[in-house]
Write a structure and sequence with these properties.
Layout lengths: L4 E5 L5 E6 H9 L3 E6 L4 E3 L2 E3 L2 E6 L14 H7 L13 E5 L14 E5 H7 L26 H7 L3 H4 L10 H8 L1
């Protein structure tokens, strides 16, 4: 998240989205949202100094369907803390099928891990046991469905003002997960 991103909350304080500062100020000035937290440095405009929003809350409830957690390359990398699950490297990452596809390994959360290219080449079309390699953590589907994408959630939970409004899911704490995995 860059310094101009703002957490947008629903009327019931449920996270809706991350928007840019311009959109947040537009919502505030049109009376559709209220300022919940502001950043230390104000925004200078022609009309003077205004508080820079960090968290804003909609004045009315926005109805939205419950999001689904999509299986994607970015979600796998985020789940594994952007860290190779064999050696712990954070460079040149790719995705590896723990049980290769040709051996009947499915394309699922439980069979995909983040892996550096070096380990992926070393493992080849074998299982970790056949390649004499050990996984740092057992891959599994995250047990939660965040309203924000998994990547946004992992970055957002680390911002102090925002973490107050983001749910903490059992079995998933990004700051610990990254340290454990690497």
């Amino acid at each position: 998240m860059n310094r101009h991103d703002v957490l947008l909350l629903n009327a019931n304080y449920e996270p809706l989205n991350v928007c840019d500062c311009r959109r947040a100020i537009s919502l505030l000035s049109s009376g559709k949202a209220d300022l919940v937290h502001e950043k230390e440095a104000p925004i200078r405009t022609a009309a003077g100094l205004h508080p820079a929003p960090s968290v804003v809350r909609m004045r009315y409830q926005v109805r939205r369907p419950l999001p689904t957690l999509r299986l994607s390359r970015h979600s796998i990398l985020a789940r594994d803390g952007y860290c190779c699950q064999y050696c712990g490297s954070t460079r040149d990452l790719t995705i590896d099928h723990v049980v290769p596809r040709w051996m009947g390994g499915p394309h699922t959360w439980e069979n995909l891990v983040a892996c550096c290219r070096r380990c992926n080449l070393k493992k080849g079309d074998k299982t970790p046991r056949q390649a004499n390699m050990k996984l740092k953590t057992e891959p599994r589907r995250p047990k939660f469905i965040p309203y924000l994408s998994l990547q946004q959630y992992i970055r957002a939970i680390q911002i102090d003002d925002w973490s107050l409004y983001l749910p903490v899911f059992s079995g998933f704490r990004p700051e610990l997960r990254a340290e454990e995995a690497c």
